[in-house]
């Protein structure tokens, strides 16, 4: 599916999402009559200070205008932009700020939904797709925390050796299956049926706030320890004086 | 045991007093020396042996606490939750267990509402042997952190260790209520080598230490507004600034986010065309910008404060 | 990875009342030692996890020497080793015992 196909399928009643050099901004009509705010990254664009600041502005404008509609985050990005300029200007703050805006919006009742339809990696992944309440993907999406060639360079293990090790664990290698099994991606959407309907179902089903990705990772056996460790520390801390 | 001749690890400079170096201290030493004597209780301490289940595949040794110490204590009588990363174990990187300990602590702070949190960052980012778990941990930490701030909790980040505050650690830092950084501290998303690999040595020579520190180091972050406070490399300094920051930061909400949006937009407008930190410092009319890198901590702190009072309401 | 374990008799009980102490960091050329007061007064045990395989004889000698010098009765010492030299190992074991014998401040 091209981005245009995706937008048409998400918003059969119309949308005004535009692509500004890889930065997606706009909104779309929902089946139930409401309106979704849309932000995103397209064309595998790297997320630097210039991209992040536009995305966060769009979210904050929506919060200012009021409303209860969800915020969709469409993602086909590279990693964060790896340049001197972006780090000089404090990229960590720009990416954190974008994530904060999304998390804040979600906590205020504007359900945030990530739709990964292409690539994403590392810091860009954290500030966009992973800053939503729930993340779904289209088949063929390629999320990646760290690419195997870089891992190979650092670990001094060949890519073949890494691929072999990756057969026994979903915890380090890139790919949709691994990110689903560890709890990052809730589900993969069916491209052949209406994305608008699938979105509607998702928005209707996920009313309970709270981050359950660690529990999902435990159920799916991708992250056997995280949920329990977090819960134990939480309980110990609450009992402490 | 390794019979090759290796440099002996630093055993003589065990930190024993508050004037000891933050940089040289271990995570446990920082916690022990920062907090009131005898006040620290650890959650899931090393005797629980909750180690990483993912390092064996790579024939790597584990650490009993998976490289992070979390617990509760007091500073000058004020109760605090604290998490301290050990930068010398796996570069202080976030793994599944490591990250989950901090996630649980932040969720507890959210539910307790009245106890501030200190995060002693010392991290290269995601632990690549557990990349997916590490990244998810960071995402969950960010969520839990903002939930805690929304509940009124103050969260202070301290940066001055060997590993700096890189990658996802830099994003978590950007979510804190306030940050203090020393000269040794560095904050960045991509590391120097990665920038060089991606953009070439002409743009960024990762072996040029002065360049690395101008771009990502504590002094630049303070002058840029990437950290609220710059401190001397001592346990005492970090302890003092912690109390100051806890008392200075307001609550979190839409106003803070809007103020941050304005702050960051203004930064891009003023400095977006600057090629180097030196250009930014000159654009800020910093007196004797060339001397900044070699200035003593106390001189630099005076200079930074003359430049303008730090804002506490826009992070 | 290699796991080694040595059990020894000790001349006397390690001093102090603390039940637990830890020293060191797992890094190249370094190690951590977790020490717990768990055993009968005249027994001690050293358990080691190490990525450097094939050095059993060296560990055995270092541990035996440590037990002889420090008499760590009642203590179980657990080691995660990052490839440390024998003298560093000896130092950390001694530091661990000193720590658990310290009175709480």
From TrEMBL, chain C:
How this protein is processed and modified after translation, per its record? Covalently binds the prosthetic group of malonate decarboxylase.
Q: Which InterPro entries match?
A: Mal_deCO2ase/Cit_lyase_ACP, Malonate_deCO2ase_dsu
Family stated for the protein in its record: Belongs to the MdcC family.
Q: Does the keyword ATP-binding apply?
A: no
Subcellular localization(s) per the UniProt record: Cytoplasm
| Annotated keywords | Cytoplasm, Phosphoprotein
**HAMAP family from the UniProt entry:** Malonate_deCO2ase_dsu
Residues with the modification O-(phosphoribosyl dephospho-coenzyme A)serine, per the entry, are 28
Chief localization class?
Answer: cytoplasm
Q: Which Pfam families match?
A: ACP (PF06857)
Q: What is this protein called?
A: Malonate decarboxylase acyl carrier protein
Q: What does it do?
A: Subunit of malonate decarboxylase, it is an acyl carrier protein to which acetyl and malonyl thioester residues are bound via a 2'-(5''-phosphoribosyl)-3'-dephospho-CoA prosthetic group and turn over during the catalytic mechanism.
* One cellular-component annotation, GO: cytoplasm
One GO molecular-function entry = acyl carrier activity
Origin species, per record, is Bradyrhizobium erythrophlei
